Amino acid sequence: MVKGICNSTYIMYDQHGAKKKGQGDLKEIGEGFRAQTSHNFANSCLIRYQENKTKYYDKTTTKVWKIQKK
Fold it and tell me: Model-level pTM greater than 0.85?
């Protein structure tokens, strides 16, 4: 590693504190948001259909908190 260059990474957790699809190199965080959101939305749809709640629809809300280790 070259001195002065930082390889920043990120990890996204879901509302239950589990790591899912979003983690990797900070330069690729946009793909992480897409993967994490897609995973959560698809899972929500599957659960809704399994419970036969087909008159409802799914939506997603994303909130971001920056937490930094020192």
Answer: no
